[in-house]
Design a protein that fits this description.
With 334 residues, the chain is α+β, with helices and mostly antiparallel strands. It has two domains: 143 residues, 2-Layer Sandwich (60s Ribosomal Protein L30, Chain: A), CATH 3.30.1330.10; 165 residues, Alpha-Beta Complex (Phosphoribosyl-aminoimidazole Synthetase, Chain A, domain 2), CATH 3.90.650. It has ten helices and 14 strands. The longest helix has 17 residues. It is globular, with a radius of gyration of 19 Å. It holds the Pfam family AIRS_C. This is Hydrogenase expression/formation protein HypE. Belongs to the HypE family. InterPro entries: HypE, PurM-like_C_dom, PurM-like_C_sf, PurM-like_N, PurM-like_N_sf.
Length: 334
């Protein structure tokens, strides 16, 4: 790879290559190499989680949300996926000359509303204005800080990797998949659809899991690259994953968009759906909590030691391997 392509931002194999072969090489350190949704920072008296993300969604307004809502939910969810409670956000704006102030205010009010509902506020930021045509409307960067819900057992790739190999680990999904990606696809292609994005803050459901005594080994919101990207990342860390296809909820509307436009629902982005790995003895209690928030939640599979990669099993017992997302999947999705 001699130059950056759109595929490098799609959440699949090309993005992993860019991150691991270029970015991590330049910034290499122990914290970064853990490849979590945020950095776990150990201060003298407290452990904090820090995360940052940039948002370049197209369109900036869509059914179920806007770029401001995604920006708030994105950082809140990255903190929550570490098993932490979000505390503060920053907001940095890159605004194109000529951008309408009414739209800017609408976006910022949306971001502020999500933050307020999650119990936190925006405490710092930055604003830059660039010439017409230099940034396509508005780009937003948010960073977040959170405190661990259980300092002794954070959710992390490291915990997943080091978990007892003799114990079964189940994989749960918090809801149906593909709605964010399908909603933006429908909007871009002018399709008549009742679809709306699943964009939502996940801190409340994660806190409920911890309140119920559940301690997930790892959690990941299935954004770019969708469910497939998360499963392949975990399979590289822990071993093979087998998924029961009938346990993965996909709405008829999402399937329709996929059939029309040639996409795979497993690869479409989500902005309010997450995947968690828990020990088998915690799986039923975890499912009970998840279903209080979304009836489509389910235990979808488990880790297996006898193969590598991600394998799907259908209702008839037939099995096939799920390819890792590759190529230009769907740019400007978040």
């Amino acid at each position: 790879m001699k130059s950056v392509s759109l595929a490098c931002g799609g959440g699949g194999a090309e993005m992993n290559a860019l991150i691991n072969d270029v970015i991590f090489k330049c910034f290499d350190n122990e914290i970064l190499r853990q490849s979590n949704d945020g950095a776990l920072l150990d201060f003298d008296s407290k452990k904090l989680v820090f995360t940052t993300d940039s948002f370049v969604a197209n369109p900036i307004f869509f059914a179920g949300g806007d770029i401001g809502k995604i920006a708030a939910c994105g950082s809140i969810n990255d903190i929550a996926m570490m098993g932490a409670k979000p505390l503060y956000l920053s907001c940095a704006l890159i605004i194109e000359e000529g951008f309408e102030l009414a739209n800017l205010e609408r976006i910022l009010c949306s971001l502020a509303s999500v933050a307020k509902d999650a119990g936190l506020c925006v405490v710092c930021g930055d604003t830059k204005v660039v010439p017409k045509g230099a940034c396509d409307g508005i780009f937003i960067n948010t960073s977040g800080v959170g405190s661990l819900l259980d300092e002794s057992l954070p959710a992390s790739i490291k915990r997943l990797k080091s978990a007892n190999p003799e114990k079964k680990i189940k994989i749960l999904l918090s809801g149906d998949i593909g709605r964010h990606g399908a909603a933006l696809l429908a909007s871009r292609h002018g399709l008549q659809s009742l679809l709306s994005s699943d964009c939502a803050a996940l801190n409340t459901v994660v806190e409920s899991l911890y309140d119920a005594g559940i301690r997930p080994l790892a959690m990941r919101d299935a954004t770019r690259g969708g469910l497939s990207a998360v499963l392949h990342e975990w399979a590289r860390v822990r071993g093979g994953i087998e998924v029961c296809e009938e346990k993965v909820a996909v709405s008829a509307e999402v399937m329709g968009v996929c059939e029309l436009l040639g996409f795979e629902a497993y690869e479409l982005a989500n902005e309010g759906t997450f995947v968690l790995a828990v020990s088998e003895d915690e799986s039923q209690n975890a499912l009970k909590v998840l279903k209080e928030f979304n009836l489509a939640a389910n235990i979808i599979g488990e880790f297996c030691a006898d193969f590598k990669g991600v394998r799907l099993k259908n209702i008839y017992g037939s099995k096939r391997f799920l390819d890792e997302p590759k190529g230009e999947l769907l740019p400007r999705i978040c």
